Each structure stands twice: as structure tokens, then as C-alpha cells.
């Protein structure tokens, strides 16, 4: 069977390697021969030159924790969440887990059928076609650019705070308020993190082990200390946790609920980075793939940690609008900076360092997701071909890494000048982007498996069709509601441009830019947008055999 006639990618591969080897397999992305790349003659799915068999379950789990960055995530998210839902912050973090769990089931099913570093982009393209798939990929890239800029901002603040504690000079912490110094240090953080990711997944994994163990240990200490402090009679704001805090029905309005969910989605966001490593993980011995096992374990750890931290923080700090109260706007975008010394005393420096290394490590590991999505989009002709270059020694998508880091740095510099509360606003806008592309990806599962799930039994119907479908619908509803509400100039931090909420402007401009770039790219490489590279299909019509070609990207 001559597959080159049916796929431009196959044609390129065959042109680069006339004496290609043919192997018949089903999405065999762990092919033992490193000089070949799988390429499906019908779907067009193929390997992209990433090194295989380098990351196990523990390594993927550590990288996933590093991307989610619990210490950084919580200090940035607890304040905005409490501002929306008050004492129900633990409930909203728990509710945020539900759509994430439903989405996780869809991700697992899609990843098992189509393990590809493009994840949302590839899966949505296969299920809904190239136009929807392109926007799903854009949503993932946009969300990551937003969070990279926010990560760098948090790292800068905690760098100067840590130095001020060590030097016993509070004035040093205020240096981060200087916009030019702030941006310069931010660029340095981005450069270092990009270099580490550029060296490839193995060096990334080693770096993450050290930082994750440190921040998790300090976070457990901090949570216990807050619960103890909440019961201290000297702490007038302290309250013991109540069952009502875990009841989402206590939230005042659906708008507040939707805004709170968008923030809570942010705290879980990043777990799917583990699944983008599907082409680099070691072969699994069980039914689930290595990356799927790591993703399931990761989500469980995050739920316990986040709900516990939310309850402890609300119990200790209360909802006052002064001091360490969670409704104090001056601490909302960086709550733990204000709580560190009251809670931990002389050990506050450890919390500052934990959040600093959490943000630094997450800048590094978060870059994995957009770089590999950019790689996949370029590889399949949805973006310019220069982006898909793989470093010959380190096997990292270095052009895509550089591109995502540069765009994130520029975005941060611009936002630092137009928003007084840049961290708060980017967190809220990020939540909107995550709801957008997660929602599309989740719905790809029931659509792709719509003809086969009902033939496989009740379990397949629920895990591939019902649950992911519900998760996708919930997230898209939250996305629409939050987008409408964010146009209000009082939304989020209250920053606005011309009387329109800055968060709403960010969301509309980012998605609008995606549409413009998509239209321009469709004129440059129309083959992808005509479905000639990644064919639209479902699980029943999918091919069960494919020839393997050398795609010319190196071993």
C-alpha cells in the first residue's frame, strides 16, 4: 500500500528517506528502531524526532507536579478565589476538580488511542476537523504564554522577598515594584528556564526532582502550621473549619461560582503536560500508558493538597479587608507573601524559597507543553515548518521553546505597564483560556468514540462518552459566563481600558488573534486545513495498520 499518495507528511517522509522500512502497527510510537518514525497512512499521525523511553511514571509525575507548581499556584489563586466565593473557597477548589476529573477521563481515552505530543490540537483535529483543532491548539499555547508570564512575575517578587529576609532589610522586597528592574529579572528567569528545557527532558527531570521535593515538604509544614494557628486564641481572625465551607451551594450567585471555578481550574491546570510526553515515556507494563498512570496519580495529589490548603488559609487568615485578611486587595495576588512570617516565624524564609523555586521550576517545565504543541502543529503543516526543528544532540524542540519564551516575555513586559495588578488579571484570563481548550478537548472524546463506546460496554460509555462530554460542556459554560462577566470594569482586579474590563479584553484579543493567524496560515499551507494531513475520523473508521517511514528528523 502506497501511503505517500494519501498524506503530505508521508510524502515528505518518503522523499527524505527513499529506502524506508515498513512496519505494520497501531500508533506504534514506541517503535524500537530509533531511525524510523511511525506514520499512519490514513490519519497522518507520526513521530517528530523526540527521544523515546526516557521518562518513567515517577519522572513524569515529578515533572507534572513541577508544572502545576503547588506553592506558586496557591499563593496566586487563593486570594482571587476568596474574593469571589469567600468561605466557600475550599468548596470551589473541590468543584474545580470535578470537571478536571471528567476531562482527565477523556484525555486518557484519547491518549490511549492517539498518543501524540500535539494532544489537544491533534485530538480535536481528528474529531472535529482542522479548524477547530487549530483553535484548540492555540488555546493551549495562549494559556501557557499567560501562565509563563505570571510565573516569572511571582518568581521576581519572591526573589527580592527572600533576599530581604536574609539581609533583614524590608526595603529590598520593594525593589520588585520597579517595573524596569522587575522586567529585567523576569527576562533572566525566562532565559535560564528556556536553556534548561533546551537541554532536553532528562536534564529537566533531574532539576524537577530537587525542586518538587523541597516545595512539597515546605507546603505540608505550612498547611499544618496554619491549622494550628487558626486555633490560637491570639489569632482574632482565626476560625475552625466548618462543613459549610465545602458546600458549593452556599456561593451567592452563578457569576461568582463561574468566576471561582475559572480560578480553581487554573490551580489544576498543567497536569495534561504529562500527557504531551507520550512520545518520550517508557513503555508501560499495564493497561494504562506510563503517562496516563502519572496523570491519574497527579490529579489525586493535587485535589488533596489544594482543598486542604484552601481550608487552612481561610481558617487562619479569615476574610477581613485589612492585614492578612483574604479580602485585602493589597495581598490578593500573592497571599503567602503576607502570611509567611505570621504563620512560620523565622522559618518564613523557607516558604519564600519554596515558592521561588516552585515558580522557577514551573517556568522551566511549563515550557514543555507549548513547545511540543507548537512542534506538532508545525510538523503537521498547521504552522510554519521552521518551528518543528529538533536539536540534533538534545532532541528538544528548541525553536518552539525559544518562540514560546520570547512571546511570554514580551506579553509580561506589556502587561506590567498597562495593569497595576498584572498577576491577578493574568490568572483570571488564564482560567478562561484553560476552560476554552479543555472544553474542546473533552468534547473530542465522546465525538471520536461515539460509534465504538456503546459496543464496548457500560464502562466505555461512561469513561469515553458521558463523563468527558459533561466535563466539556461544564467548562465551555464557565468560559462563556466568565467571558461575559469579565467585560465589566469591576471584574477581577478592577483594571480596565476605556471602561471595559482588562481581563475581558485579554480574552477577546487573544482568541481573535488566534482566528486571524489561523486564516493567514490556511492560505500558506492549505493542505492541513483541507484535512489532507490529519484526517478527520472516529474510532470506528480509524485505520488499524500503518507503514513506518523515516521522517528525516533524526533518531
From TrEMBL:
Transmembrane stretches, start-end: 55-79, 91-110, 131-160, 180-198, 210-231, 251-271, 292-319, 339-363, 398-415, 427-449, 461-480, 500-520
InterPro entries, sorted: AA/rel_permease1 (IPR002293), APC_superfamily (IPR050367)
Leader sequence segment: none
Highest rank taxon of the organism: Bacteria
UniProt keyword list: Cell membrane, Membrane, Transmembrane, Transmembrane helix
Keyword Transmembrane: yes
Assigned GO CC terms: plasma membrane
Pfam families, per the entry: AA_permease_2
Membrane topology: Multi-pass membrane protein
Cell compartments where the protein resides: Cell membrane
Gene Ontology MF annotations: transmembrane transporter activity
Name of the molecule in the record: Amino acid/polyamine/organocation transporter (APC superfamily)
Alphabetized PANTHER family for the sequence: AMINO ACID TRANSPORTER-RELATED, MEMBRANE PROTEIN
